[in-house]
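Quick review question:
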């Protein structure tokens, strides 16, 4: 779950908010599939947090990006 590694508004422990960031996961995975750099991933996460009204400019997303890069992105195609 995305919430386990990224929680800019601090809702991780709220049972009703367990899918709070799921809407951002699709684009995040697209960026990973497209080979986005760490800087590009960071920019995306900072942009989301900014739109939420959070000041993410001084926050490091290095741990989040490391966790995202650990996701196996093996795509198999059938011919």
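Suggested answer, residue by residue:
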């Amino acid at each position: 779950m995305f919430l386990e590694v990224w929680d800019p508004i601090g809702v991780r422990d709220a049972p009703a908010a367990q899918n709070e960031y799921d809407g951002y996961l699709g684009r995040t995975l697209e960026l990973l599939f497209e080979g986005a750099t760490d800087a590009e991933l960071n920019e995306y996460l900072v942009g989301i947090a900014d739109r939420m009204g959070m000041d993410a400019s001084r926050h490091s997303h290095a741990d989040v990006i490391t966790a995202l890069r650990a996701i196996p992105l093996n795509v198999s195609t059938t011919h």
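Why it works: Residues 2-7+18-69 form one domain. The helical segments are 22-33, 38-51, 62-69.
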